[in-house]
Design a protein that fits this description.
Structural class of chain A: alpha/beta
Strand content of chain A: 15-25%
Shape of chain A: globular
Oligomer: homodimer
Strand order of the largest sheet of chain A: 1-4-8-5-11-12-13-14
Largest sheet of chain A: 8 strands, mixed
Radius of gyration of chain A: 21 Å
Low-confidence stretches of chain A: none
Chain lengths: ~375, ~375
């Protein structure tokens, strides 16, 4: 917990909730009659309403991106290193909006919400949502907040995909698109890792076809395994090597299946167990599906340049050298398509050993370049 | 099934069994009082007994490396592309011995064997075996077969680790060591993937603490997940992309959790399910542990050159460009240590898109180079 709020923090913040009664038609063909989105804002909307920045979260993210909910919080929001007074997304200049996506498990309508038609939790009956659906729901939130056009839409990983989709779905409503550690679509290997995570959850006997909440249980083992395999893909081989190497948990080897021999095993188990107690299994499935389905060029004969032709935004694309989940080559696919479509694009490849997770880490060169781009945005 | 046996096949072969009544003391401190090894041989041992080649298998391998057990076999042994008359390991020149390792599930004593002390299957009570233990048990098999010195010990992946260990444990009994797609020890990331596989098995309710056989069940889900995650690491990102890309299983998307949307999902599930019906869960755990523990340099203050100083063999080290499980850099660690220790070493890095699995695939340049090295071995 902070004994005092740091000077470059947005300080104490409170989430708000927006209700939407107008039905939302989803890509899967189903309709959400009624839903809510939980969100936070940092900074002040200017009189011209021209300084709003939307933050889109990744697989396990949520609305609480910066600041503290109380003085008892152990940690600030998940992107506090990048959002605050004088930071890359400078709250002295920008009005920042950060939401939990539809299908999430942190306060927006999702699988653990009550289905008004049955008065039971949706569970696995919650419709599959896509990046396009999220962007449509975010546009409605912008309407509620009186934001006609975002100064920027910003996100890392799956969040970067939402930023890209904004430039395609609502070209006139976004001036800058910042896509960090992202990709224009998943590779077969990316899908394969997601599929392992899904099978771990689906095959857990406590999953109960997605209606575990009604049974009063949690598919803890499945979620733990899903997170463990995901976590390996977030870190680089080098980062894991530097952090753990072959370090042992105790002084000697135990030669059995139940002991933890290596520190990396203990770290992974802890990450998996911690995650399984705080995240919803159906939301995890939904998020991996949204990743798998994202492929905006599919509707344009796989021509990403043609897909982005109508975009009016300027683009900033950032990648990290050791990211093997979405490698620099995947960001370059976006950059090449943008150049072919004659868009303004800045590309930064940051030399960083941390792998995919680098986008969450305060790496000086990354923060400096990111701040440089954001500071040049006119508001 | 073969309608006729190909001319370059070793033909119809039959496994044999060797019983060992002399107790084997294991690295874990426990002792196996009595055990058997199942093995096959191809070619003829010459009068000087100087032409014997030992094949060491990888994680899910076994003794049946070449030829057919019957005319009804759908496929030949797992390394048939490399073993046979005129092939890389030429059975016109060499007497080839291939065994199933201790702890295996294909006929050698392992977790599914009866524990003579309880008259029940060992299950999880089977002792943890290491690469060193395997090499010791293989040396006893050599004694039984009257082979004082191997012309070569050859293996891929975990098999390559056994070949390396032979050169360290029995320097006078091996003239050539061929280590393909291998590594001198696992990285933290390698261990992490193994740990996910183990947790998938250990947390399967049907595992029953490793005594599932007595319960008449199989931890099928755990084994399936373990194989799925393993399989991703055997293929390169490129190979998966070329083989499946984002190809769909049916013509349109289903937008649910139970349908198979992408071909790569269907492939992985098939691989996992097929494996879970033929492999023993306790053996899988043992094999991953043997991989984790392998680290011959640990006893020499992490100095691999010092570890290999007493070796008398010549070495052939082969790696594959897109192998990210044991990348070329891992093979180069072995090569650099061997050069520092002033050993004779040939190193080949084969340009191949198939990833780690390349060592099992008949890639022309690989076969040619491998055959070239083997043909120069005097017998």
């Amino acid at each position: 917990m902070p004994t005092e709020i740091p000077a470059d923090s947005v300080g104490l913040v409170s989430p708000q909730i927006a209700h939407f009664a107008e039905p939302l038609v989803l890509a899967c063909g189903r309709t959400l009659a009624d839903y809510q989105l939980i969100y936070e804002t940092y900074g002040e909307l200017n009189a011209a309403r021209s300084n709003a920045v939307l933050i889109c979260h990744a697989l396990s993210g949520h609305h609480h991106a910066a600041g503290y909910h109380s003085m008892d919080d152990r940690k600030p929001g998940w992107w506090d290193s990048c959002i605050g007074p004088g930071k890359a997304i400078d709250t002295n200049r920008f009005f920042v909006v950060s939401l939990n996506n539809l299908g999430g498990c942190n306060g927006s309508t999702g699988p653990s919400s009550l289905n008004p038609q049955t008065n039971k939790p949706y569970g696995a009956d919650f419709p599959v949502v896509t990046v396009e659906d999220w962007v449509n729901s975010q546009a409605r939130l912008a309407d509620v907040l009186g934001i006609e056009q975002w100064a920027a839409v910003v996100g890392g990983s799956l969040g970067g995909m939402q930023a890209l989709q904004w430039s395609i779905s609502y070209p006139e409503r976004i001036r800058h698109c910042v896509a960090i550690a992202s990709a224009p679509k998943l590779s077969a290997q990316n899908i394969a890792f997601n599929e392992v995570a899904r099978q771990a959850i689906l095959s857990d006997p406590e999953f109960h076809g997605g209606h575990f909440q009604e049974q009063g249980v949690i598919p803890r083992r499945g979620l733990m395994l899903a997170r463990m395999v995901g976590h390996i893909t977030y870190l680089s081989d080098d980062a894991m090597g530097t952090k753990f190497g072959r370090g042992l948990k105790s002084e000697k080897l135990n030669y059995d299946f139940n002991s933890v021999e290596f520190q990396v095993e203990s770290y992974l188990r802890y990450q998996g167990e911690e995650f399984s107690s705080r995240f919803d299994a159906n939301t995890y499935l939904l998020m991996t599906k949204a990743l798998d389905y994202f492929d905006p060029a599919a509707a344009h004969e796989d021509d990403l340049a043609a897909t982005l032709a109508a975009a009016q935004a300027d683009f900033c694309v950032i990648s990290f050298t050791t990211d093997w989940r979405f490698s620099p080559e995947r960001s370059q696919e976006i950059v090449n398509a943008l150049m072919a479509a004659r868009k303004n694009v800045s590309y930064l490849e940051i030399d960083a050993p941390q792998g995919h997770d680098a986008f969450l880490i305060p790496i000086p060169r990354y923060l400096q370049a990111f701040r440089g781009y954001m500071n040049r945005i006119a508001v």
